[in-house]
Please model this.
Amino acid sequence: MSLQEAAPLLLVGCGKMGGALLDGWLRGGLARDAVTVIEAFDKQRADLAEQGLRVAASPAEVGADLAPKLVVLAVKPQQMDAVLADCRPLLGPQSLVLSIAAGCTLARYQAGLGAETAVVRAMPNTPAAVGRGISVLVANERVDRAGRAICEALMQAVGEVAWVEDEALMDPVTAVSGGGPAYVFLLIETLAEAGVAAGLPADLAARLARVTVAGAGELVTQASEVPSTLRENVTSPGGTTLEALKVLMAEQGLQPLMTEAIAAATRRSRELAS
Model:
């Protein structure tokens, strides 16, 4: 599906994730005059205007004649209720709302925009900034097949897309993929620190950790084997890697720790949504 089918598109919020989405859409062929961006910060608004985009400081400045086909909400959850109230007058009967705000439920959007509003929730992650993200989407019953296709095309501009039908699954999705990049960054930090503890110079340890994790990620992306097979392929019997894995795969090793961490993040996601 062509991204032009989302026009006219209204993007509310153009921070890091909103900006990553916008860049992906423009690279994917969405015309600049097909997008109107609402951004509260003066400098960012000026930068967007210099790029030839239509900008406004608030929904009230847009005007009721825009009649957006798609409204993308890329603001913080604590701002959402005020944004919904401001955007509601702009929506027409055919408008579709796509939100990337974590923890905001479909019911919250329908309460703020009207029960008849077609809404899709998306949970992207930060690798979207380099076109390597993954987004999980869930839709309410008002979204038809064409609406799903438009939202999927928009999110595919920054990476892969998956759908769930049970909105409750968005909480563990947030824990696994939403927070996942932070866990990987922590892995790089701890791997480098362990290298320093073993005697490596700090700059070399940091480089080894960073490039090794990045390369392993690319390898698992391109390989046909599952990660467990890739792990086994690099683990020689009686070798050094096996000794390290005995520690990481012990009863109290990495798996139970990661399971506990994801459970904690999932609980917090549910608390924020309540």
About this structure: The chain has twelve helices and eight strands. The mean pLDDT is 94. The beta strands are 9-12, 35-38, 54-56, 70-73, 96-99, 118-123, 133-139, 159-163.
